[in-house]
Amino acid sequence: MKKIAPLPETTEEEPPFTPLTAQEAQRLREQNPPVSPWWVVAGQAVVGLVVALAAWALTGRQNVGWSAGYGALAVVIPAAIFARGLTGRFSSLNAGTAAVGFLVWEMVKIASSIALLAAAPRLVPELSWPALLVGLVLTVKVYWVALAFSPRPRKRQTLN
Fold first, then answer.
1. d(C-alpha 122, C-alpha 143), whole Å
2. How far apart are CA 19 and CA 60, in angstroms?
3. Which residues lie below 8 Å from residue 153, measured CB to CB, with a gap of 6+?
4. Helix, strand or coil for residue 73?
5. Using CA atoms, how far apart are residues 76 and 42, in angstroms rounded to an integer?
6. To 10 degrees, the CA torsion angle through 93, 144, 151, 70?
7. Per the CB 3.0–4.6 Å rule, which of 5, 49, 71, 141 could disulfide with 136?
8. How far is CA 150 from CA 25, 81, 156, in A?
9. What distance in Å separates the CA atoms of residue 55 and residue 57, rounded to the nearest whole number?
């Protein structure tokens, strides 16, 4: 039978938590505005179009461009559904409905992505799976790029 050593007792007092004032909270929101999900969807659509055109131009084959474009659509359409669900009026009633709404719309997004990918062989003539996957992966990566290029808050002009 092993003995477990007791946890060391801390002698340092932690500073008490102090809530923000209304002005401090407002200033914090202005300095760090949330990224709109529609900003991300727009970025994904642009990247998807660029990838599809680049695939077509690099290979000279129209079906490769359509395959890459369809891969991008398999990301953009579910992301748009997800963004619409998150920005609906019921999603911000309280923290509980926001959390449940997020999970439900995320499941809808995943299911619609899978359905679009399953339908790809029937919808895209002469489907190129590698091109479709390149379009899909590059479009998914826009989530990270959108955070870097998100709209910045406007600086307030003060009247002297």
1. 28
2. 60
3. 30, 31, 33
4. helix
5. 8
6. -90
7. 71
8. 21, 20, 18
9. 6
